[in-house]
Design goal:
Mean pLDDT of chain A: 88
Number of strands of chain B: 0
CATH architecture of chain A: Orthogonal Bundle
CATH architecture of chain B: Orthogonal Bundle
Oligomer: heterodimer
Strand content of chain A: under 5%
Strand order of the largest sheet of chain A: 1-2
CATH topology of chain A: MetI-like fold
Order of helices and strands of chain B: HHHHHHHHHHHH
CATH topology of chain B: MetI-like fold
Shape of chain A: globular
Structural class of chain A: mainly alpha
Low-confidence stretches of chain A: 1-5
Structural class of chain B: mainly alpha
Distance between the termini of chain B: 25 Å
Amino acid sequence: MSLAVTERNSPFLLTGPALLVFLGLVIIPLGMTVLLSFYDWGQYKGIVPEFTLKNWVEVFTDSYFFEIFLRTFRIAILVTLASILIGVPEAYILNRMAPAWRSAFLLVVIGPLLVSVVARTLGWALLLGSTGLVNQGLIALGLITTPLEFMFTETGVVIVLIHVLIPFMILAVWASLQRLDPQIENAALSLGASRLTIWRRVILPQIVPGILSGSIIVFSLAASAFASPAIIGGRRLKVAATLAYDEFLNTLNWPLGAAVASLLLLALVLITVGSNRLIERRYAQVFE
Amino acid sequence: MRRNSPPALIFHGLFVVFMLAPLLIVCVVAFTPEGYLSLPTRGPSLRWFKAIFDYPEFIRAFRDSLWLAALSSTIAIMLAVPAALAIARYRFPGREAMTTLFMSPLMVPHVVLGIAFLRFFTQIGISGTFVGLVLSHIIVVIPFALRLVLAASYGIDRRIEHAAISLGAGTSTVFRRVTLPLILPGVVSGWLLAAINSFDEVTMTVFIASPATVTLPVRMFLYIQDNIDPLIAAVSACLIAMTAALLFALDRLFGLDRLFVGSGKG
């Protein structure tokens, strides 16, 4: 009898500590942040715990905030598209390599993930500056005469975020490529399909779920990226994350910063949950 | 296995250059003998590596980051192991929701977590303390620990545990002598991945770090915001070299594909 009781309670005993920690350190702080976004704030009076919608009204009506959120999602979409265009062929190429080469180049893909994003962005700042190696190389090749502007531009931020986030796309696509049966490809080839047809009709349909789940990861990380846009974009080219940072640590308008953060969280949750639903419905048979 | 075509290999070559160029340039610039950012055309110099020791804040931040990574990932794994065993073995109400909750720090933007912790820690009076850093890092690394322990827990043959119980072993003996050794690869790799992610975390930490307790990536970020010079390149080069060494060790010990791709099969 007592054994049955322990057996019935044990999942709750085992998950209890983690659950308490998450309740205290995730649910409560996030709830407090949402609450904070409804508080009043003034230059001299500070945070006043009185219910007001003014932060939300400001975030939704001020064109300054609209522009920043628009830029954030524009950058995230461009980064996601570029990651698909580069990451999918690269994953396919990696998958076809001999195992020894493949594990060597896997280090090249995964390695940068483990290096602090600050160090990686510093590398790009060195490469992309007006006297950086990229501009020097393009001028030496005679492709351009005056240096291109990468620093403090959206182009620069997009390039850096592709570098930072593309490993996630490659890993997601690679995982789905590994489930492919190479015999299906051989069958298509023996039936006279061209390489392009095989790609389009045989391989691509099977790896679409991998591409989509990679896209969700890349998109949400790009939309909430902070260190790279802060370093490459500078103070003028703000995105949602750097805007929230400025409101919290420079302007000290915490309620407004909390509204920006809550909106970013809400938008990302809606987008990721929505697209997950869509994928699961559309590709239910692939996931089994 | 069919071979890659020449255009595919050219594409691959360009991709490898793209991935490695920013890391290599940092390492090259770090060896410059000049007082400004430049390639070491007059031959390499260790000047800027020596200069790191004149800035004790980098050394201190590095030490704090190591402590933080070790502490937070150890506590995270202690919370993740029982939770993973429960999720892998039992069907109970709220199981799915709980798994989603425990994995949620991967989906919630770190900038939002940073703000939430800043607000919460200010209210309870531990803002800017090392305790606050540890608590917040436990949350962001739990998903990595949980995922790998969970993958290991699904693979256990429970008959081995039942055999131990039938031979008279108590609950704690079964866990210590049977269960833990079986899931140990998952525990170790989960701990490592958690520690690496804690060490690298910057977006959330920048909100809750204070001048007294600051991690190395945050210290570097704040430095770069002011100016970019060969000193910060030298600090970054050290970090890249350490990561490269760790990467080769991990690859030898576990196999990187096991650690990062399809770890579900165990």
